[in-house]
Amino acid sequence: MKKINLLSFLVLICLTSCSDSKKEETMTKKYVEEPHSFAKPNEAVVTHLNLDITVDFGTKQIKGTATYDINNNDASVIVLDTKFLEIHKVFADEKEVKFSLGSFNEQLGSALKIPIGVDTKTITVHYNTTEKTEALQWLTPQQTADKTHPFLFTQGQAILTRTWIPIQDSPQIRVTYNASVKVPNSLMAVMSAQNPKKKTTDGIYNFKMRQAISPYLIALSVGNIEYKAVSERTGIYAEKSLLEKAHQEFSDMEKMVSAAENLYGTYDWEQFDVIVLPPSFPFGGMENPRLTFATPTVIAGDKSLTSLIAHELAHSWSGNLVTNATWDDFWLNEGFTVYFELRIMEALYGKDRANMLALIGRQDLEEELEGFKDSPEDTKLKLNLKGRNPDDGMNSIAYDKGYLFLRTLEETVGRERFDTFLKNYFRSHAFSTMTTERFITYLNTNLLDKHQVTFNTEEWIYKAGIPKNQSKITSDRFRGVEKTLSEFIRKNKVDVDMTKDWTTQEWVHFVRNFPKEITTDQLTLIDNAFDLTNSNNSYIAMVWFEKAITYDYRGNNIDDNIEAFLTNVGRRWYVSTIFKAYKNSDKVAEAMAIYKKARPNYHSVTANTVDDILGYKAE
What we know:
The chain is α+β, with helices and mostly antiparallel strands and 619 residues long.
């Protein structure tokens, strides 16, 4: 060993100490504080999940083990999130340990505290779900399209994964996972991972997700489903009676992936498949990596609602690749995704189609702003959801105000610069999480300061409402719709030829813009001409039913059709819109009579929302 003098020795100690201090500070600050998880990832964090479970339709339970690889930053306890789970026993490495459950919180569940040592490498939890588990929906054969076999699907976003897997349920904690899933031999299991294309003989399916994802994106579906490829990397899972319809409706999937890659870089998930779920699925779509979950309500027969597929595909960059670190930053997922979705739609179908979609979103935003007039804090992009359900932030503010901010920013700096910025943003932050504050810093450094552009970023993000410097969106086709509606109101006569080439968006714009003074006789005239009450397009039906309730239109057996729609469709946006119309029209008793029949068909996500709208209390 080389001799060193005292001064050199002291300097070396200082440098080593300072280095260790900086290293410790970096490790400590890797994860931000967030209010929707009990986990303490800066102390001990999970990195990989091995799931070994059985899906039991008889008891309506998932049961098995969740084993995690962990990183321990000198902690004596690792904390997982659980809710409505039965925990049987827990192991640290191969030794059974005494676990504890914290007090129960109605929104967050209970903290599962597991003692660990400095050298602990894995933890294993033996558990099963219960009848209260909110992420799962167990469907009888009668609730499916084919009506021959039961069905199961999960919905993890925002904080429901903890109700079917004990996990550190925060979006900033990314894990890879393997899974072994045992299901009845007549059914197929698929997950947000590498998936089978055919059923196995023994009902055992093995999955691998090698890219690290946030817990809300771990998804499972089990049913009597089949697969049909659209291209080498895209395809459809669906029940047999829906497969051909879905395959035809979504035949542009490969074109969408190519258009997305041309805009913002390589698709990093190898496969982009879609599974069409039963109609009780609570969302239009869910962007689970490699396997988007989709509602059958977007199968309109004319590809007019496939912007939803573009939206979920766009999440493969904004949301799945670069993920909001907390649910307060949700707009980073959805605002970017709406912007990207409409750029894909513009590339494939033209600017006016994209602008019609943007204007529909703008209408949704105005309605949301009106609904939040007594709570303007909720109209900010960056939210403070501490003590609240993160679902409270999943509305048009995140989606459509977020989009409007980005569109206005693009128009300010120029599309070419903005596209370069976004492509670099996705690539430089791939497979990581992002806070609003870090995004603002990146935006200033890599776009605004770089090109000496002044923009009111903080007003858009931290202030209520919509700033004055907003993009002005126009559509010649919507102007034509407004002219047709004006002529009808003036002449009291419907010109059917004027509407023969209308898209879904034009019909929605037509119905949404009925004047307040429209009469039930005029609504009857419209319904007789276009048979909107019996529309097979669920989006058109939804907006028509909303207006019928608002204006007390009762023709064409519409009450029966509304009840059938609400009983069969579980998409939260659609049913909540209709139930709000009942409430706003002082028809709560009428709504409640329907809801008591419909509620058993809804996923908990939808039921919880409608419960709040109608003031329903489960017996």
